[in-house]
Design a protein that fits this description.
Helix content: 40-55%
Order of helices and strands: HEHEHEHEHEHHHHHHHHEEHHEEEEE
Distance between the termini: 38 Å
Shape: globular
Number of helices: 15
């Protein structure tokens, strides 16, 4: 275990503290067993190490951060580590990249049951693997899902513009303060269009040249490795799944026609539905339903979006339609904290069963949501609100 302790100290030394996401404040770090889940590259590892640095002194041996991709675990088990850590006075064990350890959920369950005074935090980038392990850890583990940077965080970390988080109700019903503050500090429309193309993943500043390539690698790994290994997807169909992603990038968001997707992708109807659901769980896609509460398992979604606008631009092989990018942004930002459903006849989206949202350009009117209670238009190329017609970027301040 000595080698892991030395690496823990090195991580403590090099973990940056200049930028700390407020998202960390919503996590119950004191839970006996906490699982932090999220796509690769959204900052899970940094968040864990920053928490340690904020709450423990340097060389405090009550806490230990390890990663399961360490060579140590080729000859040692998690159970071995937990016992040694416990016997040496350890109290808070952070285990990163947990999905890279075979049968991890069973050993974590045994550790949880064997050492009731020890707190355990696990994290992994394979959402499918993390979900697969939920059954072994049911009633024991608190799951916390995080995602990439919001528009607000992009402004803070990339542009030095700091604006607080606003709850959705305040954003929709009383947006004046937020809009006034944003317009004092920058030109929101231009900054919003920058964010659509880059800034969702925290590693952009470290990798500007290859940013889209890095996103493509994440998508390829998810499809080639995780879908085939965990979901038992036929390896011969991975190219078809990628083609399906490309088709979705090139189209305007539309009500799903499974038969059409089946013909275009060369996959059977039931296979298309299954793959779409896998891709939704893996955070490659956002799947919307007209009635999420009553949506049945493996039911076809009513509308499909790429998970986030940066992934949309990175994966697209033709120029991205701005209407697609706008709606992708709105769904991504709102789904982080709220229930988003497809609006069908009335508006583009229904939020928390209460608010109706229509998305469009600056000329978008209320004709599609006339007389609908609690309805709003989110319009591009606006710097201020006009009644219930709000700048689209305001929903980027939810976290």
């Amino acid at each position: 275990m000595d080698t892991l302790i030395k690496k823990h100290d090195r991580w403590w030394d090099i973990t940056p503290m200049e930028i700390v996401r407020k998202w960390a404040q919503s996590i119950n770090w004191e839970a006996r067993l906490l699982s932090i889940r999220g796509p690769k590259g959204v900052g899970k590892s940094t968040m864990m190490r920053q928490y340690i640095k904020q709450h423990y002194a340097y060389m405090d041996r009550q806490v230990l951060y390890v990663s399961c991709d360490d060579a140590y675990f080729s000859t040692h088990s998690l159970l071995d580590l937990a016992e040694q850590f416990y016997l040496s006075g350890g109290k808070h064990l952070f285990i990163d990249e947990i999905h890279k350890y075979d049968n991890w959920s069973r050993e974590i369950k045994e550790i949880y049951d064997s050492y009731p005074t020890m707190k355990i935090v696990i994290s992994g980038s394979s959402l499918l693997s993390m979900m697969e392990g939920d059954s072994d850890l049911s009633r024991r583990c608190i799951n916390h899902d995080i995602q990439g940077l919001s528009f607000r965080e992009f402004l803070h970390f990339y542009k030095g513009i700091e604006i607080p988080v606003y709850p959705l109700e305040d954003i929709l019903t009383n947006p004046a303060l937020l809009i006034q503050e944003m317009n004092k500090k920058g030109r929101p429309v231009a900054l919003f269009h920058e964010y659509l193309q880059y800034g969702y993943y925290p590693y952009y500043l470290d990798n500007e040249t290859d940013y889209y390539l890095a996103i493509q690698q994440v998508v390829n790994h998810t499809i080639d490795s995780e879908l085939t290994k965990i979901c038992k997807v036929d390896i011969g169909n991975t190219r078809k799944i990628k083609a399906l992603m490309t088709m979705l990038c090139a189209s305007e968001p539309y009500q799903v026609d499974i038969s059409k997707l089946s013909v275009q992708s060369g996959l059977k109807r039931e296979t298309v539905v299954a793959y779409l659901n896998y891709m939704g769980k893996a955070k490659l896609l956002q799947l919307l339903y007209c009635d999420l509460v009553n949506a049945k398992r493996m039911q076809k979604p009513d509308k499909i979006y790429i998970d986030n606008p940066n992934m949309l631009y990175a994966w697209a092989t033709t120029p991205v339609k701005i209407g697609t990018a706008r709606e992708t942004f709105v769904v991504n930002q709102l789904a982080a904290k709220h229930v988003v459903e497809f609006g069908k006849q009335q508006g583009d989206f229904k939020i928390d069963g209460k608010y109706t949202i229509e998305v469009g350009g600056e000329d978008k009117d209320f004709s599609q949501i006339a007389n609908v209670p609690n309805s709003y238009v989110l319009a591009d190329n606006l710097e201020t609100a006009i009644g219930h017609k709000l700048p689209i970027w305001v929903v980027g301040f939810l976290y």
